[in-house]
Design goal:
2 domains; Immunoglobulin-like; five-stranded antiparallel beta sheet; PKD_dom; 17 strands; PKD/Chitinase_dom; mainly beta; 9% helix; PKD_dom_sf; Jelly Rolls
């Protein structure tokens, strides 16, 4: 009997263990796919006077999160933000919408932010003439700055005189220190009276508050002057009044000599 009892007890234990080890039926983990986000928005001037301010209105659907990229290194996660640009220009605005499952879509527009009153054919006063200051160059005419074709001729306001430098090697720097800082947004160059191969072709304009740290403001590569005593006007974006401006001439049209009749740094508009 004891042996039979032991066998029965063992069978009961095996059955209990089998029942205890049986796994529960897994819960239903089916994930319902969310609709794919559809991204759309509109852009309109937010102010009738301030042309730099825009209202961006989100009209996207099926999203949880938004990311605006305004094309000027600024971003926003607001639904319909107002953004003010620092300067006029062409900006690529991108809106990306994303749902909770990580699906996303984007829309991009090209926004032309322009001052309706800006005239690219006009320029304001030359600060070299109205404020004044000191011109220095990395290497001058052999006769010095006051020579007949010395460096001071490039800022004397006379398009019929010129600065001439022999032995040009792409390292000429002309620096002007204003008596007081001024907010510039344009500059002009006038070509010399002869030998087009001496004209500047590649250059960089920079500004500085202290004469030590320089900020690139504008540059040209492969520029050509089609005539003698030709005046060219260039506009650039800037919101800092600099005391120092410098023009670094990197290349001319192949001559071992350099010439320029006039250089000015100007107020952007009259």
């Amino acid at each position: 009997m004891k042996k039979l009892f032991s066998i029965i007890s063992a069978l009961i234990l095996i059955v209990m263990m089998s029942v205890g080890c049986k796994k529960d039926k897994p819960a239903d983990t089916t994930v319902i796919d969310e609709p794919v986000p559809l991204t759309s928005f509109t852009a309109a001037k937010a102010d009738s006077v301030d042309f730099l301010k825009y209202q961006f209105t989100n009209t996207s659907t099926n999203y949880k999160e938004l990311l605006w990229q305004f094309g000027d290194d600024s971003t926003s996660v607001e639904k319909s933000p107002i953004h003010k640009y620092a300067f006029e220009g062409i900006y690529h605005v991108v809106l990306t919408s994303r749902n909770s499952q990580g699906l996303s879509s984007s829309r991009e527009i090209i926004l032309n932010v322009a001052d309706p009153n800006f005239d690219r054919t006009k320029v304001g006063e030359s600060y070299f003439a109205t404020i004044g200051g000191t011109l220095t160059v990395s290497r001058d005419n052999g006769g010095g700055p006051n020579a007949n074709e010395g460096s001071l001729k490039v800022v004397d306001g006379d398009p019929n005189s010129k600065f001439f430098q022999s032995g040009f090697s792409g390292d000429l720097v002309m620096k002007y220190e204003l008596k007081t800082p001024a907010l510039a947004g344009a500059y002009t160059l006038i070509s010399g009276n002869d030998s087009p191969d001496r004209d500047p072709k590649t250059w960089i304009l920079q500004g500085s508050e202290d004469g030590i740290k320089w900020i690139n403001l504008h540059s040209r590569t492969g520029e050509l002057f089609s005539g003698r005593a030709q005046r060219k006007l260039y506009h650039f974006n800037n919101n800092v009044p600099y005391k120092f401006y410098r023009l670094s001439i990197k290349a001319n049209n192949g001559s071992r000599d350099f010439q320029m009749a006039e250089w000015t740094v100007n107020k952007k508009q009259p």
